[in-house]
Structures are given as structure tokens and as C-alpha cells.
Design brief:
The chain contains 12 helices and 10 strands. By secondary structure, it is an alpha+beta fold. It folds into 2 domains: 288 residues, no CATH class; 115 residues, Rieske [2Fe-2S] iron-sulphur domain (Rieske Iron-sulfur Protein, 3-layer Sandwich). A 4-stranded antiparallel β-sheet has the order 1-2-10-9. Strands 3-4-5 form a 3-stranded antiparallel β-sheet. Strand 1 and strand 2 form a beta hairpin. It is elongated and about 95 Å long. The mean pLDDT is 89.
Length: 417
């Protein structure tokens, strides 16, 4: 649940703030034709993101880094043109042509933001299912709740950003728009640098490598800068609301002014609360969700006559037990045993699966969980092939012991190297 809440927040937050500011400035400054341009670009970006998501999950032929390189290059060119055609000397000389170009570039930036951000987010439910998650399982439901709550939080952030920026002057909103686009451009430039270095399009050196590494390690810094922009706006609006001196000619008009500023304070407070939740997701909750899970220690088991012997007494408590065989090459091949609930049978398999490898399983709240992908196993199906279930191994039960042939373990030695 928490992992998909965090993923959704980190993936969408910067784009949502950018789109909220763009929508507010479009409302304040754009003529009817310009609004159509921005809406068209946004819709096209949304459609393109859906098509890209389908293509990425239906085929392995999509080179994501190459696409991102193209998207960001176009977006950076659009940002440069936007700056040029918003200069007063240029816009006054070219008139409507400059205005059209400005709004077209705004549309391109908004579309590029959606095209880059959304494909992976659309794919999150597909990833849950493809990892062996049943759509009717409790764990799938929890993850979907986290995913949907992340979307709800992002919708609140969008409207809070939009409503706050809408109360600025047209000039103030334009400054904010350019600053948000600047932060976005810096982030895009850092990704472009990483891609062209990775693809060896340009020769790397110490300076370029250091810059790419630093911006990659601290990529969330761009998100925090975007949050800071709206936070500054909320502070400005809150201070202004404390000292309202708008003229009015009658009590009804006075009440209307007071109601307007009361609404502004509420949206400012909503923005602050939403951003606190977002920052908590990216820091405290993320740290909690990514804390290292320690696997339980390997327990002793008798090795004799080419077999590993586990007695019923060792595994009768219904909890997860981990055993291992050390090969001649020094490789520890682990397997797990757990007594199935309300049954005399046992779930037995390697401490590894075909999807996630040998990261292992751990027990949490009476459930068996994959350490890598957090998928919760149905204990009753452990010992059967499929999904993220442990790899099936041969075994026999005889005289109160589980007998696991060593040759059946050594077969999977490469999984644990």
C-alpha cells in the first residue's frame, strides 16, 4: 500500500504543480484561442501517455531512455522559445504571432510533462497483477488503495496550486509560471545529461559525471523547489488576507470580499496540508517502507545419504522456517518450510522465485511475503508453480520427516550465486 502511494506521489507531484500553475495562468491571461491551444496540447499529451504505457507493457521494443531524450529535448526547445517570445520587445513587435507561439510552447511543455510522467503511473496496476498478484486478494486491494489515495492527493495538490495562483496578479502568475518551467527544464537537462553519458553520445569526463551523479542522487530536490514556489504563494496570500483593504460600497459587497478571502485562506491551508503529506510520503513514510527486512536465520537440519532431513517437530508451529544446503562450491541454497493452516500438509519450496530471484521470503503478521516485491503469498499455494510463489522442489515425507533430495537443490545452484 505505502509503496504505491509513495511511487504515485513522487512520479506525479512536480508535473501536477506545473500543470496547476499553467492552468491558473491560462485562466488569467489567455484569450479564447490560446485556451484552446493549451487544452489541445494537454489532451494530446494525456492520450500519448496512455498509448506509450500500453506500448511499454505490451512489447520490449520501447527504448524508454531514447524516448525521454526526445521528449525532453523538444520541451527544452519549447521553453527557450517561450522565454524569447515573452520578452516585451519581441511580443510588441510581432503582436499576435508572438502570443500564439508563446501559448503553443506552453502547450508543448504541458504535453511533454504528461507524456513523460504518466506512462509508468498508468502501468502500476498492471505491475501488481504481472507480479503474480491476484486481483481479488487483500494485498492487491491494499496496493490499489495506496495508488488511488496517491491520485486523490495529487488532485488536491493540482486544485490547491490552481486556486492559489489564480489569486495572484497576471504579472505575478507569469513570473511563477516561468520559474516552475525553469525548475522543470533544469530537471530535464539533468536527465538528458545522464542519458547521453550512458549512451556515450558524448565523451564523459569527471565534471560531467559528477554533475550527472549529483542530480540523479538528489533528483527529489527539483520536486522540493516546485513545492517551495507554491508555499511562497500561500504565505503571500495568507499575509494579504490578514490585511484586506479592498473598497466596498455596501454591506453585501463587503461580505462578498470577506468570503473571497476566507476561501483563499482555506485553499492556502489546503495546499500547505497537502504538501506536508507529500513531503511526509517522500521522506518519513518512504524511509519506513524501504527499511531493510532481515530474513530469519537458517536453521539446522540433518544432511545424510544425499538428502536434507527436517523433522515435523521443527516446523510444527505454523511459522516460516528457513533451511539450507551448502554446495561444494560454497553456495548456500536456501529453502523454506511452513505448515499450512488447518492442515497437516506443508508448503515447501526454494527461498527464491522465478520473478524476483533469491531475495527470499519473510513472515509478517502470519503471512509469507516476498522481500523484493512485497507480494503476499497464499500459504495454501506454496509448493505449487506460478506467480511469485517459491520455486517448487522435490521432497518426500517419511517417518515424521520432510526429506529434500540434495540433487533437487543443487539443480538451482545458479539462482543463489
Amino acid at each position: 500500500m505505502l509503496s504505491y502511494l509513495i511511487k504515485t506521489t513522487i512520479s506525479l507531484l512536480m508535473a501536477v504543480i506545473l500543470l496547476g500553475i499553467t492552468a491558473a495562468y491560462t485562466k488569467l491571461a489567455a484569450k479564447a484561442y490560446a485556451k484552446k491551444i493549451v487544452i489541445t496540447g494537454t489532451v494530446l499529451g494525456l492520450i500519448a501517455s496512455i498509448l506509450m504505457s500500453v506500448a511499454k507493457n505490451a512489447t520490449s521494443k520501447i527504448d524508454t531512455s531514447a524516448w525521454n531524450l526526445g521528449i525532453f529535448t523538444v520541451a527544452l526547445i519549447a521553453y527557450a522559445l517561450l522565454l524569447i517570445f515573452s520578452v516585451k520587445a519581441v511580443s510588441s513587435r510581432l503582436g499576435k504571432a508572438a502570443d500564439v507561439i508563446f501559448w503553443c510552447m506552453t502547450s508543448v511543455i504541458a504535453a511533454a510533462s504528461l507524456f513523460y510522467t504518466l506512462p509508468d503511473v498508468w502501468a502500476y496496476p498492471y505491475q501488481m497483477v504481472s507480479a503474480g498478484q491476484s486481483m481479488i486478494s487483500t494485498d492487491f486491494l491494499y496496493k490499489m488503495i495506496g495508488f488511488l489515495f496517491g491520485w486523490i492527493l495529487m488532485i488536491v495538490v493540482f486544485f490547491a496550486s490552481y486556486k492559489c495562483v489564480l489569486r495572484l496578479s497576471e504579472k505575478g502568475a507569469l513570473i511563477l509560471l516561468k520559474l516552475s518551467y525553469l525548475i522543470n527544464a533544469l530537471r530535464q537537462a539533468s536527465v538528458i545529461l545522464s542519458i547521453i553519458l550512458a549512451k556515450r553520445i558524448i565523451k564523459s569526463n569527471h565534471t560531467l559525471f559528477t554533475i550527472a551523479k549529483y542530480t540523479s542522487n538528489y533528483s527529489n530536490g527539483f520536486i522540493y523547489l516546485s513545492i517551495l514556489l507554491i508555499f511562497v504563494v500561500t504565505v503571500i496570500l495568507w499575509v494579504r488576507s490578514m490585511n484586506v483593504n479592498e473598497p466596498y460600497s455596501n454591506p453585501a459587497q463587503h461580505r462578498k470580499i470577506k468570503a473571497k478571502w476566507r476561501s483563499i485562506r482555506r485553499w492556502a491551508a489546503t495546499a500547505v496540508i497537502a504538501f506536508i503529506l507529500c513531503i511526509a510520503n517522500m521522506t518519513v513514510i518512504n524511509a519506513y517502507d524501504n527499511k531493510v527486512v532481515e530474513l530469519s536465520p537458517v536453521e539446522d537440519a540433518r544432511v545424510d545419504n544425499g538428502n536434507v532431513y527436517v523433522t515435523f517437530e521443527q516446523v510444527a508451529d505454523g511459522h516460516l522456517h528457513r533451511f539450507a544446503y551448502n554446495t561444494e562450491g560454497g553456495v548456500e541454497i536456501r529453502f523454506i518450510v511452513i505448515k499450512k493452516p488447518n492442515s497437516s500438509s506443508y508448503g515447501i519450496g526454494l527461498d527464491a522465485c522465478d520473478i524476483c530471484g533469491e531475495t527470499g521470503y519473510y513472515e509478517k503478521d502470519g503471512q509469507v511475503v516476498c522481500k523484493l516485491c512485497d507480494v503476499v503469498m497464499n500459504i495454501s499455494t506454496i509448493g505449487f508453480k506460478g506467480g511469485c510463489n517459491p520455486i517448487v522442489i522435490p521432497y518426500e515425507i517419511e517417518n515424521g520427516e520432510i526429506i529434500v533430495p540434495i540433487e533437487g537443490l543443487v539443480e538451482y545452484e545458479s539462482e543463489f550465486r
